[in-house]
Amino acid sequence: MPTLGAACLVCAFLCAIYASGAALAGRNGDRRWVDSARRSVFAMAALLTVSVVSLEVAFLRDDFSVALVADHSSTTTPTGYKLTAMWSSQAGSLLLWAWVLSLAASGVLLATRGRLRELVPWATAVLGGIAAFFTGLMLFGVISPGADSFPFERLSPAPVEGVGLTPLLRHPAMAIHPPMLYSGYALFSIPFAFAIGALVTRRLDASWIRATRRFALIAWVFLSIGILLGSAWSYSELGWGGYWGWDPVENASLMPWLVGTAFLHSVMVQEKRGMLRTWNVSLIVGVYALCLLGTFLVRSGVLESIHAFGVSKVGGPLLALIAVVVIGSAALIVSRLDDLRGSRRIESLVSREAVFLVNNLLLIGLCAVIFWGTFFPLISEALTGTERSVGPPFFNRVVTPLAILLVLFTGIGPLLAWRRVSAGRLWRLVGPPAGVALGVTAVLAVTTDAASEPAALLLFCFAAFALAAIAGEFIRGAGAQRALGGGSWTRSLATVFARNRRRYGGYIVHAGIGILFIAVAASSSFQTSSDVRLRPGQSATVGDYEVTYREPTASIDSAEQKLTFGAVLEVARDDELVTTLAPARNYYSSAATEGVRGFFEGEATSEVGRRSRAGGDIWAAMRPDLRPLDSQIDAADQRVERRADQIVRRAEQVAGTTPPPEMRAAVVSQLEGAKVKRLGSAYIDDPPPVDFRVNVNPLVIWIWLGGAISVAGGLIAIWPAPAARRRRVADVHAARLARDLGRA
Amino acid sequence: MEILVALVLLVFVAWFVTGPLRSARGQGGEGEDPHLADLEARKEAKYREIRDAELDREQGKLSEADWRAADAELRREAIEILRQIDEAGG
């Protein structure tokens, strides 16, 4: 299968090049070349699917002759993680990128078949070019093995056992996070390619946007899910108690999300009003460049990061592609400025299009400050020779004011009409949510300590405004529908919702974002955190809670070669037991260091003890002080070696020949297993002190819920209205217009 | 065996991809008239705008006078698109 996969990858590369060339050959109207190019994209998608399947089969079969499988899987890796191990590697993630791109390209070419005949050849050429780049990058690894980019590199002889999946990645969120992110990145190729086609052909009306809007929205949804999963993983696995650390790789996914959000709003203005055309082509070029930059940051190792995959040779080619995209697109945009310039102007500042323009500026501003902070180490090194980094305090200081304003405008935008809000209507629209916001702010200031954090209180105020505004939109919409057609409130709401999915799906996204921001502000501004060192029976005070280390725990998982030291923590408030937490620390057998010592010098992961409620989380992570066990560990390893030697010598005497090395390895493994079990018992009998981090995080669960609500809103906005309903509505308007034509 | 399968796949892909080049269809081809399809898409978008403006009026964002003015302009634009559709033979 691996040979088939490699052959299909080569064929896919050839198909990508052909698709690009054939599309260009058909740009002047020869449909045969355009159709041939489209088929080549379909074929590329099929071939890359075979490549992906063959690699997955290699993982499932534990085929360690494939270097990727040997380096990222093992016989003890659970099956689910074997399937997802592909994208824990550079080569596998490049394959994933190319595969998703090929599927998306096939989808859009199928959807636009027979339409946009001037645009499609150029878009196909661009998509083929991008696909050729990524498949070519993988094949580059064949001639330059150090590039570590060829997914089907073989090992001879094949090792008996693989290294296994990095323990940090053995988490459901981390299994799904990479394909979500890469799907988002790859899908943004679609609107980018069509924008280039629109620029080249000077077809700068909204047709390219209409053709690709859903792909852009799907890309945004995937990117959102990927970012949320990454945050959830960080909160659950990394043991520091946070969900966002302004890590360069985290920022690399947030920047295209911010500009992508601006793009999705801004294209609505072009669709409705024919404005912001220069903005929109510039935004999608920016989004795509940032998607490539995100891939570059993760893959090149140019910036230190917990996500760092090490220095690699693919950074250079990726940087070159980014340069081509940015410079080439900029040149095209500048050359088409006259065509992009629209005749319409914003008629009123109190209009939806004006708010969307402010929205663009805020989101771009956020992206710009995050970009500056992320790349500041490189910039300072280039200018001064000294690498200086910026950390969370910088980001929090510059991002917070912009984020607060953004929350305000998520409420203002839905309230306004296109073109203008009629004079005298504005107060009627803004008044009620403003009243709710002021009321909520007053209650919070009086009944909580929210006033001690003015920025957080201001955000709560604006978020309350936004949520009240959105609720008002639903109520007004249902009321209007009820006035027209009668029926209950519920039915009216369902009807107006179903007929305006894009609008109300967008409102749900805004509501989710508002909730998410409330949760971020609360959990970061009002978190209580303590680092304490406890022995069994000892207690510490964390905020309003009394935390008692009741007893240690230890367990062994032979299948995963994992030793776990844990703790039972009782959390009480006012002498009443609130919850029991079970944090733990997992130690994995290391390939680099042999023996029992190998468990403690390899990777270790945290299992967080957590109680989640609507009001907040009580969160605990632990790290035992293993120094008291050092002498026991060393003694265990020495005894294992001595005993193994004895057993092998006896076997040699009995058999009369030297036993094979595998026999000694098997004996050592069995003896080590017994020693590890005894070590676990020793940990229970005479537990060393443990360093605990205990956090009380208000409202943090609403980050995930708010994010999920936003994603749901995005999916609703993507969902097409039933064709029959569209036809009925169209017929109604056509009939009315026909009547008007008759009277005119 | 895998090499053989790969070669067969390559031949099939080459045959599939070059199919249109071997067909009798020339320039232009069959299928949807792109100009007409574009007009239909613009028509749908304009109807959505008309519906949005109605919803804004019903929700109290637009006065009756402002709505009438906007609606009239949108309908003029929609009629123009319908006229172009008629001319294109739709």
The most extensive contact between chains is: A-B, 65 and 49 residues
The CA-CA distance between the termini of chain A, in Å, is 70 Å
Task: Report on the biggest sheet of chain B.
Answer: none
Structural class of chain A: alpha+beta
List the helices and strands of chain B in order.
HHHH
Overall strand count of chain B? 0
Structural class of chain B: mainly alpha
Task: Explain briefly what this protein structure is.
With 744 residues, chain A is an alpha+beta fold.
Notable traits:
heterodimer; A: 744 residues; 6-stranded antiparallel β-sheet; 4-stranded antiparallel β-sheet; 24 helices; B: 90 residues; 4 helices; 78% helix; 0% strand
What does this structure look like?
Chain A is of the alpha+beta class and 744 residues long. Chain A has four domains: 1-166, Four Helix Bundle (Hemerythrin (Met), subunit A), CATH 1.20.120; 171-350; 426-526 and 701-743, no CATH class; 529-698, no CATH class. Helices cover 66% and strands 10% of the residues of chain A. In chain A, the strands form two sheets. In chain A, strands 2, 3, 4, 5, 6 and 7 form a six-stranded antiparallel sheet that branches. A four-stranded antiparallel sheet of chain A has the order 1-10-9-8, covered by helices on one side. In chain A, helix 8 (189-201) packs across helix 11 (277-300), helix 10 (248-273) runs antiparallel to helix 11 and helix 15 (392-415) packs parallel to helix 17 (454-485). The longest helix of chain A has 33 residues, at 352-384. Chain A is globular. Chain B is mostly helical and 90 residues long. Chain B has a domain at 31-90. Helix content of chain B is 78%, strand content 0%. Chain B is built from four helices and no strands. Chain B has helices at 2-17, 19-22, 34-58, 64-88. The longest helix of chain B has 25 residues, at 34-58. Chain B is elongated. The N and C termini of chain B lie far apart (54 Å). The mean pLDDT of chain B is 83. Classes of the chains: A alpha+beta (744), B mainly alpha (90). The interface between A and B is large, with 65 and 49 residues.
